[in-house]
Amino acid sequence: MKLTGLRKEVLEANLELVRHGLVLYTFGNASGISRGEGLIVIKPSGVPYESMKADDLVIVDLDGKTIEGVKRPSSDLETHLLLYKAFPGIGGIAHTHARYATAWAQAGREIPCFGTTHADYFHGPIPITRPLRPSEIRSAYEANTGKAIIRRFAKLDPLHFPGVLVAGHAPFCWGKTPAEAAHNAVIVEEIAAMAFVTITANARAKAITKPLLDKHFYRKHGPTATYGQKK
After folding, report:
1. Is residue 124 part of a domain?
2. Helix H segments across the chain?
């Protein structure tokens, strides 16, 4: 069986989404990539999380051809493929239909950076794509979803913004590993919930200042980071 270690990582990332209540039934998916081998491990389509095993996961190449596995890969495979090709620094992707993040996506609104919890993970608002055109939905829908995300990131660093809201759909998140992608999906849902409560408490709430945003983001990211222990 190929990529045994990555299979276990991707299975664990999928189960992490379940543990945090980010997916219902068979919604959502997580994947991981072996850059050295040019292969992706992804959740199979429609398989319940509670019965899913590492050998149920599907291995595909960067063209989407199944290399190992008897089940069909996630229906969102084409989106994952395009993101891995466009964002070479990422090693895992997690897609959920988590309640609060999905509500912001359905509302067609990016999530403002109202506080330092948000700033610890995103160097600004959580972005949202433009809605897909009818022609983009009718044909190559999943690929066009990936293209919409990539267009939105034309001027953004995907490692400084480890997730996006797809308008009318739901969030896609990523990280350097499958575990980090799942972690970021959990964080995005928490940020989305806190932002909703914030504007409920004060409809005129404003985003934090850039100095405070920069302070918190760069404490955890980049060459001058001071958060955590030295490696």
Report:
1. yes
2. 4-19, 77-86, 99-107, 116-119, 134-138, 141-152, 178-201, 210-220
Catalytic residue among 55, 61, 214, 227: 227
Q: Which amino acid is at 124?
A: G
3-state secondary structure (DSSP) of residue 172? strand
- The CATH number given to whatever domain includes residue 59 is 3.40.225.10
Q: For the chain, 231 residues long, give each residue's pLDDT as a single digit of tens.
A: 789 999 999 999 999 999 999 999 999 999 999 999 999 999 999 999 999 999 999 999 999 999 999 999 999 999 999 999 999 999 999 999 999 999 999 999 999 999 999 999 999 999 999 999 999 999 999 999 999 999 999 999 999 999 999 999 999 999 999 999 999 999 999 999 999 999 999 999 999 999 999 999 999 998 888 887 776
Range of the domain at 93: 4-220
Instruction: Report the domain count for the chain.
Output: 1
Q: Using alpha carbons, list the distances in angstroms from residue 54 to 7, 13, 49, 199.
A: 6, 11, 11, 41
Give me the residues paired with residue 126 across strands.
111
Which listed residue (56, 76, 120, 218) is catalytic?
120
Distances from the Cα of 21 to the Cαs of 32, 49, 136, 203, in angstroms? 21, 12, 31, 28
Query: In the annotation, is 25 catalytic?
Result: no
Sheet hosting strand 92-95, strand order edge to edge? 66-68, 58-61, 39-42, 29-34, 92-95, 171-175, 163-165
Cut 0.90: pTM above it:
yes
Q: How far apart are CA 211 and CA 204, in angstroms?
A: 21
